[in-house]
């Protein structure tokens, strides 16, 4: 019989004990940074009550274990290294529950050269030099748009790499 998650205790109905909610949050945050929304969703899925989630979130903020700004900065750095552009990263952060103003600030403070990143992404995915026909240009544009780059960044990369 497990008592740490309340299963098997009379009247518990599968509700997680208070200290266990914090332990679960600490385990999740030890693996990687999470946004507040992600952490709330994961704790709720594990059976932590809403009141306990609020308490755990407050505790995590107090000890600076949880910080949406820091999460956004690290997420931007990670995704940009993998060849994604600012538009895609902005959308992904929004889907993870990060506030728009936090996303805007993190993107404004990041040091990524998005034009160079578009070029590197293009170089990694396509064999160079690129043909100058319209079909190739369209294929490259679709790919870089999908990766989240702005049209200006795509045009600069194409100008540099098409023979």
Automatic annotation (TrEMBL):
Is DNA damage set as a keyword in this record? no
Q: Which gene encodes it?
A: recX
Choose one Gene Ontology CC annotation of this protein and give it: cytoplasm
Residue intervals of the RecX first three-helical domain: 23-60
GO biological process terms, alphabetically, are:
regulation of DNA repair
Looking at the record's lineage, which domain of life comes first? Bacteria
Q: Which family does it belong to?
A: Belongs to the RecX family.
Task: Identify the keywords attached in UniProt to this record, alphabetized.
Answer: Cytoplasm
Question: Where does the RecX second three-helical domain start and stop, copy by copy?
Answer: 67-107
Domain RecX third three-helical residues, every copy = 116-158
Q: Which organism is it from?
A: Edwardsiella hoshinae
| Functional summary from the UniProt entry | Modulates RecA activity.
> Any idea where this protein resides?
Cytoplasm
Where's it mainly located? cytoplasm
Name the record gives this protein:
Regulatory protein RecX
């Amino acid at each position: 019989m497990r008592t740490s998650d309340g299963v098997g205790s009379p009247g518990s109905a599968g509700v997680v004990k208070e200290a266990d909610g914090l332990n679960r949050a600490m385990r999740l945050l030890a693996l990687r940074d999470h946004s507040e929304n992600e952490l709330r969703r994961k704790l709720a899925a594990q059976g932590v009550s809403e009141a306990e989630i609020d308490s755990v979130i407050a505790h995590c903020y107090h000890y600076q274990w949880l910080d949406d700004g820091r999460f956004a900065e690290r997420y931007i750095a990670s995704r940009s290294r993998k060849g994604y552009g600012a538009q895609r990263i902005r959308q992904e952060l929004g889907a993870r529950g990060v506030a728009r103003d936090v996303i805007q600030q993190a993107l404004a403070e990041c040091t990524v050269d998005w034009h160079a990143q578009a070029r590197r992404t293009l170089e990694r995915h396509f064999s160079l030099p690129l043909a100058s026909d319209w079909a190739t240009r369209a294929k490259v544009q679709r790919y870089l748009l999908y990766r989240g780059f702005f049209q200006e960044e795509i045009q600069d990369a194409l100008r540099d790499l098409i023979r």
